[in-house]
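Predict structure. Chain length: 140.
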Amino acid sequence: MRASHGRIVFLTSVQAKKFIEGHEHYGQAKKNVEDWLKEFSEKEENKNIQIFLINPGHVDTRMNEEAINYGVELIKERSIKAKNEGKFRDPQIVGRIISQMSISGNKFNSKTNKYDAPIENNEIVAISDYNVNFESEKNK
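Prediction complete.
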């Protein structure tokens, strides 16, 4: 990776910053990996490796369905609210967005409708509604 100026893409979560009752271990695990990646990237020998983290938001996954069906009350309420508000994102679209950013090293620019905004090393990139809408329309 050092020789090829590789990229590390880590799928993170808002829970890495704000632990939610019943998912503390999940949030702590995400935070631990974020911290390790930051430390890794600060080493001189790794300076040519781009590392970025993606926060995909609410994705329509089995984990979210299980939170709704079996989660502790706070997680259940949060997931039901997001689902009812139409915030659950199609995992296929989220995957396309992650692929675009991983391949290009750029994030989506809503002004140009392209993936042309450079991602800084260790930046946490949130997938936005702009990304989702753009990818949804593009593949109709």
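Summary: The chain has a mean pLDDT of 87.
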